[in-house]
Amino acid sequence: MSHPSCAVLNAQELVDYTRDRREARTVHSALVIEDDPDISLALQDLLEFEGFRVDCASTCRQAFASITQNTYDVVLLDLGLPDGDGSSILEDLRVSRPALPVIVLTASNRDLGSLPAFARITKPWVRRDLCNILHRALGTTSTPVV
Q1: Which of 76, 80, 72 is nearest to 32 (CA)?
Q2: For the chain, domain boundaries
Q3: H-helix or E-strand containing 32?
Q4: Which CATH homologous superfamily contains domain 34-138?
């Protein structure tokens, strides 16, 4: 008799096993506020791989609605949104949820002045750098990303 962890799984069992493992290790939640669908999807994939439950918003309006209805452990915020400046979201979060770490995603190296963000990362980001920032924001240990 083989050990259960050495059993051969059919395709559906493998999908179920993978989903169950992912759900079992999901301990943090993140809100991605990004209007570019490709970047948003890439961030969602990266965060889910890291064990996050992820919500996405592509406008200020969607972001404010998500923030009002949900609790997050971290926010990734693009400043250039189609219906407003993402800095208004950041300012609102500093007042309503001052302990919530916000990581600003920016397409340029422009000076962000006194924006009260936990960190800033320039697009395109390096996966390992973003993961390290996320884990620092949450006070957890980062696992190496290959």
Answers
A1: 76
A2: 34-138
A3: strand 28-33
A4: Response regulator (3.40.50.2300)
pLDDT tens digits for range 6-50:
456 667 766 666 665 555 555 899 999 999 999 999 999 999 998
Measure CA 129 to chain center: 13
- Which tokens hold the place of 33? 């506020």
DSSP 54: E
Three-class SS state of 33: strand
Q: What are the CA-CA distances from residue 20 to residues 4, 5, 37, 51, 79 (Å)?
A: 16, 14, 27, 12, 35
Beta bridge partners of residue 75, listed in sequence order = 31, 102
Kindly give the pairing relationship between strand 52-57 and strand 28-33: parallel
The H or E element containing residue 65 is helix 60-69
60-97 pLDDT tens trace: 999 999 999 999 999 999 998 999 988 899 999 999 99
